[in-house]
Specification:
four-stranded antiparallel β-sheet, seven-stranded antiparallel β-sheet, 275 residues, alpha+beta, 7 helices, Phytyl_CoA_dOase-like, Phytanoyl-CoA dioxygenase, globular
Length: 275
């Protein structure tokens, strides 16, 4: 199959062009247009996604949380509404067209043998100044492993995403830095915020904003520095994440007891390395 033209859907798969592959290699991220059609969004993604937003699917413990770091809020008050592992809590969602296309994309960008490690719902409440997600590298959240840790973080725009409502921002080429940057808890403790962050000097480092249309997919490398703006618009901003990694890497994680659930102690032990 030729990859000389534009990227695009090919049945349940998706072909990444040579230009987009090079963009990912050079920058550590790439915006892929219309990985999910509007009809597929309406029929496959949105109905299940909104069941989680409306709390029609039970999510135990800390796997439903507010990633803003605010304390004492009920889910009706969360400004960064986060659901960990929705495809585990709603198994019928597994194997859908988005997963198939993300697997094809990950294969093309990171090599073969890529599988879903975890998924996540991120929704930012309208008019929420505290819904910014601070600078970080995904790999800083995960334990050190002996296996190949190559990852493809596939970020689906479930709504149109702009600077005003919280689009992603990247430091191009930061995935090529030899070491992860030093991270720290966003709140006073890891348990308080469920999030970590690092420093980026925006006056000295090149930063790109990446708006996306509903159905677009942004794929980034596990070491690429990224963050997002707060949602200052009058409507919710919705996104869904599928993270794919090598089978041996996932197996090694699970052997350590690490499954990306916020209810798992090892998740907090990994955070504590940044204390």
């Amino acid at each position: 199959m030729s990859t000389a033209g534009a990227s695009g859907i090919t049945g349940d798969s998706y072909t990444v062009s040579n230009a987009d592959k090079k963009c990912f290699e050079d920058n550590g991220f790439v915006l892929l247009k219309q990985v999910v059609t509007e009809q597929e969004m309406k029929d496959v993604i949105e109905p299940v996604y909104m069941k989680f937003i409306n709390r029609e699917v039970e999510v135990p413990g800390k796997d439903l949380c507010d990633m803003s770091g605010a304390q004492g809020r009920t889910p009706d008050e969360f400004t960064v509404y986060n659901v960990m592992l929705p495809r585990i809590y709603h198994p019928a969602w597994q194997g859908n067209v988005l997963e198939k296309r993300c697997k094809a994309i990950a294969y093309q960008l990171r090599g073969g043998d890529m599988h879903v490690d975890f998924d996540q719902i991120f929704a930012k409440r309208a008019c929420s100044a505290d819904s910014a997600f601070l600078w970080h590298q995904d790999a800083a959240y995960w334990p050190s492993l002996k296996s190949d840790t190559a990852a493809a973080n596939c970020w689906l725009a479930v709504s149109n995403v702009s600077k005003e409502n919280g689009c992603l921002r990247y430091v191009p080429g930061s995935h090529l830095e030899p070491q992860l940057r030093r991270h720290r808890p966003v709140g006073k403790t890891h348990e308080e915020s469920h999030a970590i962050c690092t420093d980026v000097d925006e006056s000295a480092e090149r930063v790109l904003d990446v708006p996306a249309a509903r159905g677009d997919l942004i794929v980034h490398h596990e070491r690429t520095l990224h963050c997002s703006y707060p949602n200052l618009s009058s409507e919710w901003r919705h996104a869904y994440i599928l993270n794919l990694r090598k089978a041996a890497c996932i197996a090694e994680e699970r052997s350590l007891g690490f499954d990306h659930s916020h209810n798992t102690q090892l998740q907090w032990d990994v955070f504590h390395k940044w204390a």
